[in-house]
Design brief:
elongated; mainly alpha
Length: 582
């Protein structure tokens, strides 16, 4: 146990434990959004675009549900430059960031316990960090490459907090704290609560008597305002949580009560997941709303508030700080459950930063109980038993994130009445060559009893068209693409695929009218997606068939500028070379 008190040994041990546990993810493929964002991205991840991502161009027409996360963009640029399109490389980056975060969290706990004058701080910090390293709710954030938003946000959040504690000794550390806070904010929006977490720590530790207290929060406030300014150049900074307004005050009252229920129940859901992290689902379609769940939520929250107050009265500050950390960092995620920001109101990845507060609490509590009963070996035994239980589930859960086929088979069986898991499973079956099974699963997603939006149904119908297109059944493919347009006429990719169908018809029949129909649909696609390289590339081919060489050249150049994947980029360059030779 003496080695644990050596910070260098503890740091290395925690790093390698974290790395070793999540090394199983290094064999995993790209899954879910990874495929579109990284492998098949039409969005150009080039270093030359970093400036325009950090400082977006001002848009007159602004989107609500867009993410402003420049640090994540930069991380993908770095990974692509290092690894190309490598599953292993991207997963390695996630695993390393998570392992570094574990070590940073270890020092964070040491500083917190030290500031609160707690005994056994090395032992408690070690166990808290070990639990953080092994917590099963981290699998989604680590094993899913796009889930790195939470990893990066957590890493800079922890660093910012440590520098914030240093700033009371040397004021210049506030520069490092503010910089880290801003990087965390540029990784994910949840970092907006950092000043509140820092303030709770300062109030509990009576740091407000420091003459530089107000200056620090003035700096943090300026950074928040800067963030909203940068984000607001392109996107709505504060979306409306209520999608429909009403002049009926009674209706609005019921709506507010309903939102309050969702908020309370979301808190209980996440608290349950923190304490019992042994059930998993990549797509959680709804927030529990029954009266028993609501009653339990109110009782649990009330009990935690009582415990916090009693602890403060007894001048034991670790417990209220840990509880407050969990509640505050869960706040943005619980608001997501009320809003329409995400396809899922709840998600396991949202627990990455809140887990830190929970692990701090548990590590402290276990050894405090051991001290009270004068039996430290029992505390170690319980702590290690809990760690091993985490270890088993964390390793086992990573297998589900191996590829889309396994992930969506697991998810669709757990979330049967939501369309997205069935639709994604159908596409995974298609990619695996199981066409008949893919069609059955996609038809299940379109069942009227299965919950979905018009855009979701359009996506599923479009996917069915793609299955038939792969089978060269162009009649059924066109029929499903037209159904997709019926479900949602603003779904641009349907128009691209209709253009593709008419291009194929033109190839078979050498029909000018078919090529003109393809042109019409592809132009419609580009009205909706200005930077859609595939549409430009196909349009270039159409114009070649129609003998309009200048238009073909223009579209081939636009296709290349859009950031196509390499094979398509080579094809577009071939068209340019061919036209140049002529």
């Amino acid at each position: 146990m003496r080695l644990i008190k050596r910070k260098a040994f503890a740091s290395l041990f925690l790093f390698f434990v974290s790395f070793g546990v999540f090394a199983f993810s290094l064999k995993n493929d790209f899954v879910w959004d990874d495929v579109q964002v990284i492998e098949k991205s039409y969005y150009s991840f080039k270093a030359s675009r970093i400036k325009s991502i950090v400082i977006p161009k001002i848009k007159k027409s602004k989107n609500v549900a867009q993410y402003y996360r420049p640090v994540v963009f930069i991380s993908i640029v770095l990974d692509r430059s290092l690894w190309g399109i490598s599953h292993f490389g991207f997963h390695l980056s996630n695993v390393v960031v998570n392992s570094v975060s574990t070590v940073i969290f270890y020092f964070l706990v040491l500083f917190v316990l030290g500031e609160f004058g707690v005994t056994q701080r090395e032992t408690k910090a070690f166990l808290s960090s070990l639990l953080f390293a092994l917590h099963p709710m981290h699998v989604e954030s680590v094993s899913w490459v796009v889930g790195r938003t939470d990893l990066l946000c957590g890493l800079f959040f922890f660093i910012a907090f440590i520098f914030h504690t240093f700033s009371f000794r040397k004021l210049w550390f506030v520069i490092l704290a503010a910089s880290s806070f801003f990087l965390s904010l540029l990784s994910k929006e949840v970092a907006i609560v950092f000043p509140i977490v820092a303030l709770s720590f300062d109030l509990l530790g009576r740091k407000y008597v420091n003459r530089n207290f107000i200056l620090k929060y003035f700096v943090y406030t300026l950074l928040v305002l800067l963030y909203f300014y940068l984000r607001g150049r392109a996107f709505d900074s504060v979306p409306d949580l209520i999608s429909q307004s009403s002049t009926n005050s009674t209706y609005e009252g019921y709506q507010i009560l309903d939102h309050l229920k969702i908020l309370l129940n979301s808190y209980l859901f996440y608290i349950y997941k923190l304490v019992f992290p042994f059930e998993f689902n990549a797509f959680i379609g709804n927030v529990p709303k029954d009266i028993y769940f609501l009653t339990s939520s109110i009782l649990v929250i009330f009990l935690l508030c009582v415990i916090s107050v009693i602890s403060i009265i007894k001048k034991e500050y670790v417990t209220p700080f840990g509880i407050f950390w969990v509640f505050v960092t869960l706040g943005p995620s619980c608001l997501v459950a009320i809003s329409v920001f995400s396809s899922t109101p709840l998600a396991e990845r949202y627990l990455y930063i809140p887990t830190a507060g929970y692990c701090l609490l548990i590590g402290h509590f276990i050894f405090e109980v051991g001290k009270r009963i004068n039996f430290q070996k029992a505390a170690w035994a319980f702590g290690l038993l809990l760690s091993f239980s985490y270890l088993f589930f964390t390793i086992d859960r990573q297998k589900v994130w191996k590829d889309d086929l396994i992930l969506w088979e697991d998810t669709s069986t757990k979330t049967t009445n939501y369309a997205i898991p069935h639709s994604n499973y159908g596409m995974a079956l298609k990619d695996a060559g199981k066409q008949d099974e893919a069609i059955r699963e996609l038809l299940t997603a379109l069942d009227p009893e299965v919950k979905d939006t018009n855009r979701g149904r359009a996506t599923t119908a479009n996917n069915l068209g793609l299955v038939y297109l792969d089978n060269e059944d162009y009649k059924n493919a066109e029929e499903w693409f037209l159904k997709a347009r019926y479900y949602d006429s603003t779904y641009g990719r349907t128009y691209y695929h209709l253009g593709l169908i008419y291009f194929i018809k033109g190839e078979y029949g050498n029909s000018v009218s078919d090529y003109r129909m393809a042109e019409k649909y592809l132009k419609k696609t580009l009205e909706m997606y200005r930077s859609y390289g595939r549409a430009n590339l196909l349009l270039a081919k159409v114009y070649i068939r129609l003998g309009e060489k200048e238009k073909a050249r223009e579209n081939a150049e636009r296709a290349i500028r859009s950031g196509l994947i390499e094979p398509l980029s080579i094809e577009a360059q071939g068209i340019l070379n061919e036209l140049q030779d002529k």
